């Protein structure tokens, strides 16, 4: 068969073929994904990851100095290069998960929830202890934190159970999901991890409210939440210590939790509106866990409060964008799953920033896509990939404003 005049140019370098794969007429998986995925929601986490790399580069020298001693010297940019490695892993994970069909994403999430719940049960036996907490499983090159991976799986599984309420309001879905949440809370408090316990409970309540439970049930949940906090203070030593150190600081507390909160606040505000400049921050060298829990404060010192405000707006933009996408969603499962994942993302960011600003006691929770960490980055990528998968829309369908039905776009 003879070659047409433009054939050599079209195949050169393979670029036109890639373009054809992503064209609107393409029916390939990559082509359909490219047009179905919300590209604003895809761009925002990539922007946060880029900001995170800059922030970890700023925090790395401080953390390296803290963990260096006479026998072990940590290179100043060690944590930056490690974070760059995790980014190279997590970005492909995010994209691959976002390409999953809804049914497969649901099945894998249900299976993953069982696996990571089982690993959490095994933590007292096989867990690796760090700073008095048994939250990790050592894998040699890194540590695996099962609760980080369980979060998105738990949300999808809970959304799936609650979605049955749309078919039969009499099903005891609130009791079933409440029992699962209580089991996870007990396992988390045994680690101990009070911050993650609050996060799981908050997201469960949000999902219940979105599923349409009665006002009486919501009031009962509010009463149970207050009772739970009081019980935690009375019978759970970790919660009592954290609350006491935050509300009633003593000399001992000033050397522990209160010191961290106050130092984070001082670091955050040291740079003023525009910051001291990249690499010019000095208070960060006295800040514990500058690359993880308190990286928001490092951003404040080096890049200013305006930069912190922009980051807050980016997180808010993600949540608002998801809610706007779900306004006309008819599938109860997709609605609950996507809203729950967005809520987890937003609540986790809110808790971390509240700790950094001194509004809340220290909880050991990372800032999504910005803080350093392997488990956290990959788990967040899986969760955000699921969020993108559940908010994808067929580009060839358009919903009628009159009938509410989906049909082929003109």
UniProtKB/TrEMBL annotation:
Pfam families: FTSW_RODA_SPOVE. It is a multi-pass membrane protein. It is found in: Membrane. GO terms for molecular function: lipid-linked peptidoglycan transporter activity; peptidoglycan glycosyltransferase activity. Keywords: Cell cycle, Cell division, Cell shape, Glycosyltransferase, Membrane, Peptidoglycan synthesis, Transferase, Transmembrane, Transmembrane helix. GO terms for cellular component: cell division site; plasma membrane. It comes from the Bacteria. InterPro entries: FtsW/RodA (IPR001182). Its main location: membrane. It catalyses: [GlcNAc-(1->4)-Mur2Ac(oyl-L-Ala-gamma-D-Glu-L-Lys-D-Ala-D-Ala)](n)-di-trans,octa-cis-undecaprenyl diphosphate + beta-D-GlcNAc-(1->4)-Mur2Ac(oyl-L-Ala-gamma-D-Glu-L-Lys-D-Ala-D-Ala)-di-trans,octa-cis-undecaprenyl diphosphate = [GlcNAc-(1->4)-Mur2Ac(oyl-L-Ala-gamma-D-Glu-L-Lys-D-Ala-D-Ala)](n+1)-di-trans,octa-cis-undecaprenyl diphosphate + di-trans,octa-cis-undecaprenyl diphosphate + H(+). The chain crosses the membrane at residues 40-63, 84-102, 108-128, 172-190, 202-235, 303-323, 367-390. Belongs to the SEDS family. FtsW subfamily. This is Probable peptidoglycan glycosyltransferase FtsW.
């Amino acid at each position: 068969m003879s070659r047409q005049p433009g054939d050599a140019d079209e195949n050169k370098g393979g670029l036109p073929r890639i373009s054809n794969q992503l064209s609107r007429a393409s029916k390939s998986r990559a082509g359909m994904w490219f047009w179905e995925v919300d590209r604003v929601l895809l761009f925002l986490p990539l922007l946060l990851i880029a900001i995170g790399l800059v922030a970890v580069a700023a925090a790395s020298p401080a953390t390296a100095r803290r963990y260096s001693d006479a026998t072990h010297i940590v290179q100043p940019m060690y944590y930056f290069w490690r974070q760059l490695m995790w980014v190279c892993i997590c970005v492909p994970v995010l994209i691959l998960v976002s390409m999953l069909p809804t049914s497969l994403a649901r099945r894998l999430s249900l299976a993953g929830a069982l696996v990571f719940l089982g690993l959490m049960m095994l933590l007292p036996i096989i867990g690796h202890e760090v700073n008095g907490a048994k939250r990790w499983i050592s894998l040699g090159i890194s540590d695996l934190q099962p609760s980080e991976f369980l979060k998105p799986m738990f949300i999808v599984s809970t959304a799936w159970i609650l979605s049955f309420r749309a078919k039969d309001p009499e099903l005891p879905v609130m009791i079933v999901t409440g029992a699962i949440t209580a089991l996870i809370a007990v396992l988390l408090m045994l680690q101990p991890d009070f911050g993650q316990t609050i996060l799981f409970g908050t997201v469960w309540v949000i999902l219940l409210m979105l599923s349409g439970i009665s006002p009486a049930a919501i009031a009962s949940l509010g009463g149970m939440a207050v009772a739970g906090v009081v019980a935690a203070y009375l019978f759970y030593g970790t919660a009592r210590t954290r609350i006491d150190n935050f509300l009633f600081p003593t000399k001992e507390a000033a050397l522990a939790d209160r010191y961290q909160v106050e130092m984070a606040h001082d670091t955050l505000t040291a740079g003023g509106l525009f910051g001291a400049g990249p690499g010019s921050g000095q208070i960060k060298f006295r800040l514990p866990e500058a690359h993880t829990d308190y990286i928001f404060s490092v951003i404040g010192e080096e890049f200013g409060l305006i930069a912190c405000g922009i980051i807050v707006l980016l997180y808010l933009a993600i949540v608002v964008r998801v809610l706007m996408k779900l306004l006309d969603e008819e599938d109860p499962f997709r609605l609950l799953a996507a809203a729950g994942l967005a809520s987890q993302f937003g609540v986790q960011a809110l808790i971390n920033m509240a700790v950094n600003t001194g509004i809340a006691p220290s909880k050991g929770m990372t800032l999504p896509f910005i803080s350093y960490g392997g488990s956290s980055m990959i788990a967040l990528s899986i969760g955000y990939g699921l969020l993108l998968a559940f908010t994808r829309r067929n580009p060839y369908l358009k919903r009628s404003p009159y009938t509410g039905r989906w049909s082929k776009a003109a």
